[in-house]
Design a protein that fits this description.
The structure holds 2 protein chains of 2 kinds. By secondary structure, chain A is an alpha+beta fold. In chain A, helix 6 crosses helix 9. Chain B has a 5-stranded parallel β-sheet with strand order 7-3-2-11-19, sandwiched between helices. A 5-stranded mixed β-sheet of chain B has the order 20-18-12-23-24. In chain B, strands 13, 14, 15, 16 and 17 form a 5-stranded antiparallel β-sheet that branches. Classes of the chains: A alpha+beta, B alpha/beta. Chains A and B meet through helix 1, helix 2 and helix 3 of A and helix 3, helix 4 and helix 9 of B.
């Protein structure tokens, strides 16, 4: 069995003035992930190392961290690819640290809610399911794949500069509902899209789509919304509605 | 200690908990809900469910057929009145999810598509590719954001129930980020905390699936029912136990041993041809398939892999298009975690612990014997799964009974007021807080590993009295060591996950003990409980009964039995394989 050096960023709000690095030597087999490396540390070496995890199969979105500076899910990143180390594990960048590798997710959750990510039916389907063809499903399905892992926020330089920026995952989710043939809530959501910190905050770096573990391609969703936002801007002059 | 109030507290924000919260919000907008979860709602283990959810939808299907498949699948240990209630409501609840935006897979005309599943006599399973649980969970969570009366307590760990005079008065939680105790006083509590698979080593379950709700209810006198029935999913990656959905077989995948032989034909599921047929071969139920693996292993016909023995699940004949359209998640998982391209290579698979059929005993309204306490989803035993759950019945169970629990809890809360009960909460908080300052004791991982080994060895796919007795005494010893003390490296309050895993371990040891003692008391073989020591047959004369485990304090649980409700389907032999109806794969 080989051994890899893992360095974790540690921070305890009750004890530490600033984050610091801690070194661990972890024996590993080729099928072991970064998450399993952290679990080994917690079980055998240091029970105080703190990190989030749950499903171990890249669907729950809990275990995002920076691995050698790149946002990754720990459960699908393999130690063998970093041998002999040191492999540096840090909390996702751009977020406040709660403790060690656990970040404060509350800003993201508030933004998620602000996008009104629920179906506002265009027509009342009554006691039947809506009809939706596979082609109509394909129009938004990719954007419904987001697991809220926040890797794209750690990748987004704009979010790093301005935390008010709505950000990739929430704009992708907003687009998921706007592009759903069953939904009629687009006008309500366009306010967030059009806002200064909506799609126009994005400077098209595209790193969000590169790090997305689920192929959601938030950059594409943002771009489509820039087109929508432009159309919406002109339509407001062409077709003013009463009461607005 | 901080305190808060709500009319209804829902513990657990997976599918059942979210559906319960939505039901309360829909019933009466004046009622407030506290939705307590130790993780963010979208991290809950519902997210990992893959295959789909059953509902009688097609014109050629019937409620009677779903009833019969479920009751025979459960080896007649289901409560038939509850199964009737369940099958009547599945379709409406799946449609409700559709109305809330769930991206169900469709036929070309835009109607809902359905797929085959093991033990089901027709295409009855609604699916969203092979990410059905993920989409159900995100749909429910996002819909819940509409309702301001649902107040979320994300990353709050429920450590105790506050009970007074036989009534639930609140929950004691730990705000994980700060480590502070928060008492939430309420009129009713819905437990929706999921299963307890993590008492075993090799399983499909997330790290969170530690039986917390079962432990909470059990300690406060609510019995756990049918805990001996643990489901092994037959197709998981060796080592990690990562789930490879039954939908593979629902779409036509086959299982072969090291000789390339479709071994299921040797275990009452054949003949192979004409293939495919419903309820035959790879479309058989999970208990039978996992048991067949065990026999193959003992005959030396499995394939050795570095992670352990396996058989091959072969999808190749489905073709790249269908595999990518219907089974994208497991294709990705097989690639990442096993280095397998499902289009070109068979997947090595083996059984792993997957689903806790037993749970907190409830009636059809999800009421437990403790006033004001309700339970729904995998943590509950409402009576629909019997001795073996059919795949795709649990993803619909969480919405049918999540709703029922929310409805019943809301009704109860409307006629009851929360009362202050700070003293009981303070005493409980002091006990949990004291764990942080233990100077002596063992590491959490050491006791946890001892528990998992005891369960794997003594309460596995096949069981005998000596193995189960050994597990019982090992668990008693581990509980004693746990009481003597767990020593934590982490003494701080803020985000102390070591402390939380120690509390979870306390729940798990008691739940595991209920499983082992329930198993030992069932002197027959039925469904997922199979014995090798003279009780190889089903014994309806003595054991057409539920098992009830009552908490025994520091000692072993007290085991009782309870009649099964049989309304219209008299027990007979379960029948799979044989002639059977042709399955036309679409």
């Amino acid at each position: 069995m080989r051994t890899i050096a893992i360095e974790c960023l540690r921070y305890h709000p009750e004890a530490d003035a600033a984050p610091h690095w801690q070194h661990y030597d972890v024996p590993f087999t080729d099928d072991m992930t970064v998450l399993q490396g952290l679990q080994y540390i917690k079980d055998e070496l240091d029970g105080s190392l703190t990190f989030r995890w749950s499903c171990r199969m890249a669907i729950c979105g809990s275990c995002g961290t920076m691995v050698n500076g790149v946002p990754r899910l720990g459960c699908e990143t393999f130690l063998r690819d970093y041998y002999p180390g040191p492999l540096r594990v840090e909390p996702l960048t751009h977020f406040p640290i709660v403790r060690d590798l656990a970040i404060d997710q509350s800003d993201f959750l508030a933004k998620l809610e602000s996008a009104k990510p629920w179906l506002m039916p265009k027509v009342d389907p009554g006691a039947e399911p809506h009809r939706q063809t596979p082609e109509q499903l394909a129009d938004y399905y990719q954007y419904s794949q987001c697991i809220n892992c926040l890797l794209c926020y750690a990748a987004c330089p704009q979010y790093g500069l301005n935390e008010k920026f709505t950000g990739p995952a929430v704009l992708a989710l907003l687009h998921r509902y706007n592009a759903d043939s069953r939904d009629g809530g687009k006008q309500e959501r366009m306010q967030l899209v059009n806002a200064e910190d909506g799609v126009w905050g994005c400077t098209l770096v595209g790193y969000c789509s590169e790090v997305c573990p689920k192929g959601v391609d938030p950059a594409r969703a943002v771009n489509q919304n820039k087109i929508e936002s432009t159309k919406d801007y002109f339509l407001r002059f062409l077709a003013p509605r009463s009461g607005r | 200690m901080q305190s808060a109030k709500a009319d209804v507290v829902v513990v657990g924000a997976g599918g059942a908990g979210l559906r319960a919260a939505l039901a309360v919000a829909a019933q009466d907008t004046r009622l407030t809900v506290a939705l307590v979860s130790k993780v963010l709602p979208m991290r809950s283990h519902t997210v990992a469910a893959e295959g789909g959810a059953a509902g009688v939808t097609r014109d050629d299907d019937s409620l009677e057929a779903h009833f019969n498949d479920t009751v025979s699948g459960g080896d007649w240990l289901c409560d038939q009145d509850v199964v009737d209630y369940f099958v009547e409501r599945c379709n409406a609840e799946l449609m409700q999810l559709e109305h809330w935006g769930c991206p169900w897979s469709r036929k070309s005309d835009g109607t809902i598509n359905t797929r085959f599943f093991g033990g089901m006599s027709i295409q009855r399973t609604w699916f969203a590719a092979d990410r059905s649980g993920f989409h159900i969970l995100h749909t429910l969570f996002q819909t819940s954001l509409k309702y301001p009366q649902i107040r979320r307590y994300d990353e709050h760990f429920c450590a105790d129930l506050i009970v007074e005079d036989g009534r639930v008065r609140g929950v004691l939680t730990i705000d994980i980020a700060s480590g502070e105790f928060v008492l939430i006083e309420c009129a009713a509590v819905v437990l929706a905390t999921g299963g307890a698979g993590r008492v075993y080593r090799q399983n499909t379950n997330a790290g969170t699936v530690t039986g917390d709700g079962m432990g909470l209810a059990f300690r406060h006198g609510a019995p756990l029912r049918d805990m001996e029935f643990m489901q092994w999913h037959p197709t998981c990656l060796p080592g990690t136990g990562i789930l490879i959905t039954e939908a593979c077989r629902g779409e036509g995948a086959i299982l072969v041993n090291k000789d390339g032989y479709r071994y299921l034909q040797d275990y009452g599921l054949g003949p192979v041809d004409p293939w495919p047929r419903v309820k035959a071969m790879e479309l058989g139920p999970r208990d039978r398939l996992s048991q067949a693996f065990w026999h193959e292993l003992h005959k030396g016909r499995t394939i050795a892999t570095p992670q352990g023995p396996a058989v091959h699940l072969d999808l190749r004949h489905l073709g790249a298009k269908k595999i990518h359209e219907r089974l994208p998640l497991i294709t990705e998982a097989a690639k990442t975690f096993a280095g397998i391209d499902t289009v070109k290579q068979p997947i090595p698979v083996c059984p792993a612990v997957h689903y806790t059929m037993g749970g907190i005993y409830t009636n059809v309204r999800c009421e437990t014997p403790l006033a004001g306490l309700y339970a729904a989803g995998e943590c509950a035993s409402v009576g629909i799964h019997g001795a073996n759950r059919l795949g795709s019945n649990s993803l619909v169970e969480i919405v049918v009974f999540g709703r029922a629990a929310g409805d019943a809890a809301a009704e109860f809360a409307r006629s009851a007021r929360p009362v202050r009960n700070v003293e009981a909460a303070a005493a409980s908080a002091a006990r949990f807080g004291a764990m942080l300052s233990n100077e002596q004791g063992e590491r959490v991982a050491k006791l946890r590993d001892g528990m998992r080994d005891a369960m794997e060895e003594g309460v596995g796919i096949y069981r005998d009295a000596s193995g189960m007795k050994a597990a019982c005494s090992k668990l008693a010893e581990l509980r004693e060591r746990y009481r003597r003390g767990v020593k934590l490296d982490d003494r701080g309050r803020a985000f102390n996950t070591e402390w939380l895993t120690a509390i979870e371990l306390g729940f798990m040891l008691e739940v595991a003990e209920a499983m082992a003692h329930s198993a030992l008391s069932r002197r027959e073989s039925r469904g997922a409980h199979q014995r090798l020591d003279g009780y190889e047959r089903r014994d309806d004369a003595n054991f057409l009964k539920h098992t009830l485990a009552h908490h025994g304090g520091d000692g072993a649980p007290r085991i009782e039995h309870q009649p099964v409700t049989i309304t219209k389907s008299a027990p007979r032999q379960r029948h799979y394989g044989g002639a059977g109806k042709q399955a036309v794969m679409t």
